[in-house]
Amino acid sequence: MDARDSIATESADRELVLTRVFNAPRSLVFKAWTEKEHLLRWWGPKGFTLLSCDLDLRPGGSYRFHMRGPDGDDHRSQGVFREILPPKRLALTWCWADAAGNPRSPETTLTLTFEEHEGKTKLTLRHGIFESVTARDEHRHGWSSSFDCLDEYLGNASRR
Fold this sequence. Notes:
Number of strands: 8
Shape: globular
Strand content: 35-45%
Largest sheet: 8 strands, antiparallel
Number of helices: 3
Structural class: alpha+beta
């Protein structure tokens, strides 16, 4: 677990809550989560590459991501946007899927809030409810690493 993340979970809880402050304006952090040209540059844990990203960014619109891990394995996620309030909040469903778009895991809910914080952006991610604490903990590792990638990308993007 990264010391920069604040984790608010009980051992028996199956919801993941991560909070991190990014040294970037809220509008840029929100765009990094909602615009394909940004997502293609940072999405996923360290060592993963986002190969494709299809977004229909509207309530009821769907998304589908295809990434490849450093081991060469493909990972696909998909869901539906439930709420989009730029630059404050995103809510969507989430599940792992196969190449044909068939779900491979139970559907969960992902909610992101973006808050101004002393000239920076405080991002809170809530993800759950997972089928097990083990599944929650696997996602904790993936999201923490993804936050590292986003942090690195935002640092580079804000210097452009």
